[in-house]
């Protein structure tokens, strides 16, 4: 027992050191330590390639083993960890008995779309998380269960999204599509009634996608080729709080006046674009990133329509560094309007 406590402590110390330790890595790491300590008996149904510790009776650990295929998953398993292997495909049938599966973790493999069976996931009525980042997929796998809430497809080679790929996924809350080759999303997100987080960073978008999910709160569009914003963009998505558009091709001409003057927005990242003016923002905005543009003047009216005791901005963070202005261009009255900003980075 003392050994176990010691091992758990080491696990927690590790957690503190590694900033990017995810919950999944942590669980599997902890489990691996216990396994090596020989504290747990194995489950009889467990595939030879994997570990199924009796202390975690619904988990099957098969990560980081140079596996080239998905082992057959027994029916009582809910969580299957297959990350960091050399898996190229998923054959039909491997999950057929495992209808209780809740998480499938397959990131950092070599999956290609043509080697994923048409119905491998379709019977998993309880599937909640499907993690497929860092593979070689060119399409979203077909017939995904509608129970999924967290779908991760980042760092693949997906160029086209089909409406049929996401049919009926009304419970999806998080969708990661960053670092793919997507040029246009069409109207595929329209049916996502629960989606709050959409990550499409590092793709090839030339415009803000139409028909975003109505409940979206966080929208990540950095590192695309977006040149302009539609005038009604933010009024159409009243739940939107965080909008990140850094490293695009936005110019003043592409920003209709007042497009960002929306009281619900908390954070707006427009850094590393081609703006010459500070756009008008709502007095409720808290974080505004404008570094790396071509801004030449500091316009107080962008933050406060009138400067008096009752009119002031809630802005806390304002970055204007790497532009064409310096500290002496900021008028003294700015301190009344921007009274929550500790200092302005110029
Ligand atoms: C699925 O489960 C059934 C019943 O437990 C079992 O007979 C069958 O062999 C399993 N399927 C596979 C492919 O092992
Ligand atoms: C969505 O979630 C609700 C509540 O958890 C659940 O009752 C419903 O069956 C889910 N829908 C699908 C398609 O899984
Ligand atoms: C921003 O919107 C508010 C509230 O709708 C409005 O009162 C204010 O005049 C607008 N700012 C500008 C510069 O138009
Ligand atoms: C801002 O000032 C204007 C005019 O001075 C005033 O009518 C308005 O109520 C003030 N707005 C707020 C939010 O205090």
UniProtKB/TrEMBL annotation:
InterPro entries: Leu-rich_rpt, Leu-rich_rpt_typical-subtyp, LRR_dom_sf, LRRNT, SLRP. SMART domains: LRR_TYP, LRRNT. Its main location: secreted. It is found in: Secreted, Extracellular space, Extracellular matrix. This is Fibromodulin. Keywords: Disulfide bond, Extracellular matrix, Glycoprotein, Leucine-rich repeat, Proteoglycan, Repeat, Secreted, Signal. It holds the Pfam family LRR_1. The lineage of its organism: Eukaryota, Metazoa, Chordata, Craniata, Vertebrata. It comes from Oreochromis niloticus (Nile tilapia). One of its GO terms (cellular component) is extracellular space. Binds to type I and type II collagen. Residues 45-79 form the LRRNT domain. Affects the rate of fibrils formation. May have a primary role in collagen fibrillogenesis. Residues 1-18 form the signal peptide. Belongs to the small leucine-rich proteoglycan (SLRP) family. SLRP class II subfamily.
